Predict the 3D structure of the following.
Amino acid sequence: MLKPKKITLVYYSGTGCTKEVCLCFAQQLAKKGLESKIIGLENHDPGKLKQPDLLVIFSPVYAFRLASITEKWVKGLPKSNRTMVAIVPVSGGGDISPNTACTIFSRRILKKKGYHLIYERMIVMPSNFGVDAGKEMNQQLIHILPEKTKEMIEDILTGEHRFLLAKPLDRFLAMLGKGEHLGARFFGASIHPNGTCTHCGQCSQKCPTRNIKMDGGMPKFGFRCILCLRCIYGCPVHALKPGILSSVILKDGFHLQQLKKQESEELSQNQSNFDQKGAWKGVSDYLE
Ligand SMILES: Cc1cc2nc3c(=O)[nH]c(=O)nc-3n(C[C@H](O)[C@H](O)[C@H](O)COP(=O)(O)O)c2cc1C
């Protein structure tokens, strides 16, 4: 049985799902009498990380890899010869090919720096990108989260080693995912406000890469976007539109807190099984 005294949970979250997973994980640890420190990596210098016994890294999956901001943070970590690491990628599609390759780049860096990777497990949360999984599936994903995080903690503490298994093709596709990380910069630079913009500046204040500057009351976008979509979904008047790739934006927006509220109100009246294999196979397998 592992007994880590110092546990640090580090997360990056574009639209709230990964943060939710991290907070749920911390709650489940607390139920076991284990305290943890939570760090949001957006404003954190990895070089200053005080080495814990157990470091758990939570990150959304973007283009079959961990988000570029997470990969960058991992690269900045100091060397260590004692810290155990668990990686929890959070995706909309689940533990399926090529998502299975999402950790390989960070895994390699961690190993080079001397960290002991002991566990990896994909958590599935509502997708904020391209296609919506539907209300029912999203509610089930939120509902099942405490159970999944509890299972992960049991696994880690009992020393079960579990890793994502990537086939060569998955690794290749994840390598190509770097292209999307770069393309994100152009996506960001193409975003512009329409006439409904109220000049509130929230997009600028909340951007994780400080890519949005207010210029004469209007947001101006630079080339540091990581495509997290926080500005677009978070705009109170839906004023922000990308000039390219607009099909990746869900037409009804993405609001995790609303989904959570609906989940607690409606799920009990709405239990059912899914026959939506196919496109959402990774998600239905996860829920089964
Ligand atoms: C730019 C971008 C790329 C994404 N790529 C993938 C992907 O390759 N595979 C997947 O299953 N989900 C993908 N997603 C969905 C997210 O991983 C998922 O919605 C996650 O819950 C978002 O977490 P967050 O709310 O913490 O940002 C992508 C989302 C974005 C914004």
